[in-house]
UniProtKB/TrEMBL annotation:
Belongs to the short-chain dehydrogenases/reductases (SDR) family. PANTHER family: 3-OXOACYL-(ACYL-CARRIER-PROTEIN) REDUCTASE, NADPH-DEPENDENT REDUCTASE BACG. InterPro entries: NAD(P)-bd_dom_sf, SDR, SDR_fam. This is SDR family oxidoreductase. It comes from the Bacteria. Pfam families: adh_short_C2.
Length: 259
């Protein structure tokens, strides 16, 4: 399927590895000029070189912390009028809420709620004026099924979800959609960090914890970044203009609920 994205531009956050990189690759394959943002310059340049070599797409990079005003300013200077915005920032560390102080909560809100909102604020009016826009927020499956050791993430990302639910109904008439992608267990650094926490709590080896998580998933495996990226690309497509304010859970069937 031709997704109708050739010639569009995208600002993709957290794009040097993992799910953000998966989204950038899938968009580039559709002919989108992508601007990658991440903190680590070396990994970022390596990712950009790989995307250029494999897709032939135009790729720009911004080595910056998107959770800071300075980082957002740098990203928007490099890509001031994106057709597509993919927001993404690493989640807070797992732990026990009894150990968290106010500054931990503020940091979580800054990274996983207020940063996406700031990026949306900076880009959505231009998208509406041009008559096309696709915003995809990478959040977490924990929005639907909270994970006990990820309380900071549960709270901050749920706040973003509520915000998006209201705004997405205001923009869709101008062909600007806003949706959230909710990853479950994907083979990423974040998953391995969480597995280390579980291993520490249970006294089991980390490899065993990961094997048990794979086996417990109805799919019998973890997801791939390519699968995730392709779902993102579809939500950004010309064909997806009637999908807005939605939370697409990608977890291999792990969440057992009907709704």
């Amino acid at each position: 399927m031709d997704l109708g994205l050739s010639g569009r531009s995208a600002l993709v956050c957290g794009a040097s590895k993992g799910l953000g990189l998966g989204c950038a690759i899938s968009l580039a394959r559709e002919g989108v000029a992508v601007t990658l943002v991440a903190r680590g310059a070396e990994a970022l340049e390596a990712a950009a070189a790989d995307i250029r070599a494999t897709t032939g797409a135009t790729v720009d990079t911004v080595a910056a912390d998107i959770t800071t005003p300075e980082g957002r300013a740098a990203a928007l200077a490099a890509c001031p009028a994106p057709d597509i915005l993919v927001t993404n920032a690493g989640g807070p560390k797992p732990g026990d809420f009894r150990d968290w102080e106010r500054e931990h909560w503020i940091a979580a809100l800054d990274a996983n709620m207020l940063t996406p909102i700031a990026l949306i604020k900076a880009t959505v009016d231009g998208m509406m004026a041009r008559g096309f826009g696709r915003i995809v927020n990478i959040t977490s499956g924990a929005v639907k099924a909270p994970i006990d050791i990820l309380g900071l993430s549960n709270g901050a990302r749920s706040g973003l979800t509520g915000f998006v639910a209201g705004l997405a109904r205001q923009t869709v008439a101008r062909n600007v959609t806003i949706n959230n992608l909710l990853p479950g267990p994907f083979e990423t650094d974040r998953l391995r960090e969480t597995a280390r926490q579980w291993a520490k709590q249970s006294g089991k080896p980390e490899d065993l914890v990961l094997a048990q998580r794979r086996a417990a998933n109805p799919a019998g495996r973890f997801g791939t970044t390519q699968e995730f990226g392709d779902a993102c690309a579809y939500l950004c497509s010309a064909q997806a203009g009637f999908i807005t304010g939605q939370n697409l859970l990608m977890d291999g069937g792990h969440y057992p609920g009907t709704f």
